[in-house]
């Protein structure tokens, strides 16, 4: 829990039965049960392919396999309208406890207890099945940190530290609790619209079967399947910092729902992510906010009273399932969701803990791309040696080299900052501000953090 940057664990899951969970095996276990797939175009646009712009079908894993292999049987059926050469398919965020609810014995195939989380298994995990090109838009998770086991095929992860948030142009549209999206398409960034993205520093890793990636709290990530079929399993680990994050998320929900619900419905703005069932009422959102504040204050009281014990015995570990997203799909309403638990979670690491991380052949750092090698192409993790990991794909967007350009950027003359000529006059042509432009400023993570602090100070008084 002391890791503050991405790292890959090697040789930790070699004896897990879950490593046999390839698509053929899962297809047999599910016995023809259908699951929902999200379909998107393989063509790369300048705009991220958010879930609101994707198509959706329900299909069996057998039908998915046949489609991904180009079998003639796919001329009919759920994938018949989607040419495999043009589309990818993704069964993402599938809660194992739900899709295998009639086979609870399979939960024990996933052994997060090996990582020091007693009792955590597949029941607290999520399954991801995709075809080549399937991806998740760049985002950060508001709650917890993330452990990801690669089971079949490979996935490429592009990760950015929390300090790069302003360079990634955060947005809450489409709105989804616990996910802050980036306006930048990491695979094809529009540097004219988003010039500050040049300042971001990517940490890129190709995750292979048997390896486990740790995504620390609030690290941005864009994930893409690079093999014909991929299977991953992940679990979000709760942290004590989540209590304040829940207050921030409750404030965000209240503001987004209030402002977007006031718009003319005929505008056709798909502002609500498909994972959110509906825009909740102001009364419900206010109840949610009060519960989040109460949970935070309760945790603070518990932390103060138990500080002496925790310093010698360590924090009490929790294994409650994390309703990271899709609260309603997973059956979690605001009143009962464990996100509003009044217990404290894993503590923030101390400075001395950060100095004693055992990097080596079994725990490999994912380095920023500024640490370049002379090797051309991707460098995957090797489990038999080395304690550093990086990829050199020519995609590093380092700090701007021109001092003058940095000065222009600091003065918000962003249009001129990336131009090579000497004229730094800002562009005079402007377009009318939209509701989403207002929201991008109003619910910016920095603003929401300040509002949450002011609100909690008021409640303490």
UniProtKB/TrEMBL annotation:
User: Is Signal found in the keyword set?
Assistant: no
Query: Per UniProt, which keywords does this protein have?
Result: Cytoplasm
| Location in the cell | Cytoplasm
> Superkingdom of the source?
Eukaryota
Name of the molecule in the record = HSPB1 associated protein 1
Q: Domain JmjC spans what residues?
A: 88-252
General function of this protein: May play a role in cellular stress response.
GO cellular component terms, A-Z = cytoplasm
InterPro entries annotated for this entry?
Cupin_8, HSPB1-associated_protein_1, JmjC_dom
Per the record's keyword annotation, is Transmembrane helix included, yes or no? no
Instruction: Output the lineage of the source organism.
Output: Eukaryota, Metazoa, Chordata, Craniata, Vertebrata
């Amino acid at each position: 829990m002391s890791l503050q940057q991405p790292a890959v664990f090697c040789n930790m899951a070699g004896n897990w039965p879950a490593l046999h969970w390839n698509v053929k095996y899962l297809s047999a276990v599910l016995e023809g049960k259908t699951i929902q797939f999200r379909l998107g175009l393989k063509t790369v646009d300048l705009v991220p392919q958010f879930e609101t712009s994707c198509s959706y079908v329900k299909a069996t894993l057998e039908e998915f396999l046949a489609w991904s292999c180009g079998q003639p049987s796919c001329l009919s059926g759920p994938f018949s309208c989607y040419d495999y050469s043009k589309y990818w398919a993704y069964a993402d965020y599938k809660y194992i406890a739900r899709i295998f609810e009639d086979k609870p014995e399979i939960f024990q195939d996933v052994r997060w207890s090996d990582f020091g989380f007693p009792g955590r298994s597949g029941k607290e995990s999520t399954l991801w099945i995709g075809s080549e090109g399937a991806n998740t838009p760049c985002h950060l998770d508001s709650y917890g940190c993330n452990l990801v086991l690669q089971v079949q095929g490979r996935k490429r992860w592009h990760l950015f530290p929390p300090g790069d948030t302003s360079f990634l142009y955060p947005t809450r549209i489409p709105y989804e609790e616990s996910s802050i999206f980036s306006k930048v398409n990491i695979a094809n960034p529009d540097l004219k619209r988003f010039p500050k993205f040049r300042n971001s520093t990517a940490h890129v890793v190709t995750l292979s079967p048997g390896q486990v990636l740790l995504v620390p709290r609030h690290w941005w990530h864009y994930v893409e399947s690079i093999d014909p079929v991929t299977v991953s399993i992940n679990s979000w680990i709760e942290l004590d910092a989540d209590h304040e994050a829940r207050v921030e998320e409750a404030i965000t929900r209240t503001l987004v729902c209030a402002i977007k619900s006031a718009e003319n419905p005929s505008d056709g703005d798909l502002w609500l992510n498909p994972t959110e069932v509906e825009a909740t009422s102001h009364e419900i959102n206010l109840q949610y906010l009060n519960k989040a504040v109460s949970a935070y204050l309760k945790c603070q009281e518990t932390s103060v009273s138990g500080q002496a014990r925790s310093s010698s015995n360590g924090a009490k570990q929790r294994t409650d399932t994390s309703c990271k997203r899709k609260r309603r799909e997973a059956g979690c309403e605001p009143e009962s969701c464990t996100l509003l638990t009044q217990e404290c979670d894993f503590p923030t690491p101390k400075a001395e803990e950060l100095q004693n991380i055992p990097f080596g052949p079994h725990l490999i750092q994912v380095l920023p791309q500024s640490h370049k090698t002379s090797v051309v192409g991707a460098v995957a993790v090797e489990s038999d040696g080395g304690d550093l990991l990086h990829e050199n794909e020519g995609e590093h967007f380092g700090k701007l080299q021109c001092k003058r350009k940095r000065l222009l950027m600091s003065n918000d003359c962003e249009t001129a900052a990336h131009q090579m000529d000497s004229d730094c006059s800002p562009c005079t042509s402007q377009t009318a501000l939209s509701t989403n432009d207002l929201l991008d400023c109003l619910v910016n993570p920095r603003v929401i953090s300040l509002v949450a602090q002011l609100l909690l100070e008021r409640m303490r008084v």
